[in-house]
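Final report, Chapter 2: Outcomes

The project's central promise was a pipeline that accepts a single protein chain and returns its three-dimensional structure in a standardized token representation, suitable for archiving and comparison. That pipeline is now operational. To close this chapter, we reproduce one record exactly as it appears in the project archive, with the input sequence first and the structure output second.
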Amino acid sequence: MEKTISTSIEASTPGKLILLGEYAVLDGAEAAVIAINRLARVRVQPQRTGTNTLQASAIDIKNLSFQASPSGDIAFPPDLDDAQFNKLAFFNACYQVTAGELNRKGYDPIPSADIELDTSAFFDATLGIKLGFGSSAALSVATIAALAAAAGIRLTARRCFELALEAHHFAQGKMGSGIDIAASAFGGLLQYRIADNDEEIIRETTPLTLPEDLHLRFVWSGRSASTRELVAKVRSYEKEHPYVIEGIFAEMASISRDGIAALKAGKTGTFLEAVSAYHKAMDRLGKTSGADIISAEHQQIAEIAAQNQCHYKPSGAGGGDFGIVFGRDAAEIENCALQISQAGFNIMSLTMVKNGVVISEDKDR
């Protein structure tokens, strides 16, 4: 950690898409996630007035003044309605965990500041939708990094990840694996796993490399889906039929483990077989639990991919949002992408970004 003197801070973090391991990652399976070039940005301009202001156009927050104690307790204006207050849950949690970290370490508190939260890259104005890239995770990592930097402290990517995970769990009741937070904090292509050693839960992250003969295309299915609702439906069924879901999860864990091992070894053909097998396992999970995981849109895209010697699966909980086409031959995957576009789906221009959280600053002159 490095003490700095600055007047303006910006933190940026990437969004994510999952390659393998959805659902099963919640039960300790290995998963693979890629950071993509849609960035959340948080700008912090420290002030000497003692007043804080917040801008967040994505949640309709404009020039919101608030007071904050050194311990991170925020007092919003009394006329702030419940709907607006609920929209600020993640910001509130991130502010508190950052202030707590600075206080524990004996550092200066977060200075009063003008703060801007920017997730415009996670929205598509043409489609009029929010894209499923993990905007809240990316924004949480960026907020924590920027607030700490404004106080003169550069947190490591690992510590940003840990604090953002704490804030997420505080804000949404410990739901989620944290894989999206890991992608935003560390960037690149990652293997991710939740390990329980009986004393503590450890979240393992290992960098991976895409083989040169593996090509990816990212497809918007045409409609949004709620990860929370889909996961809740699976968990609800699991309560009544635990051994059935455990069996499917065990199969998914095995497929993901073998697929990631193939990825590490550069065995692209074996990895592609795992992609198709995982798609089928997700379909079984959905049909068994009653969750619409492999939606009609995902199934149609998968059929087009298979006709072009490519492989396809949803990225994330399914039901809509994004899917990924995988192929070994550049010409085949381009032809496949063209046919998917002609079928009415959107091929999005996305690429992997190697960096996770990045801090930039303007120093005092």
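Archive annotation: The two ends are 23 Å apart (CA to CA).
This record, like all others produced under the grant, will remain available to the consortium after the project formally closes.
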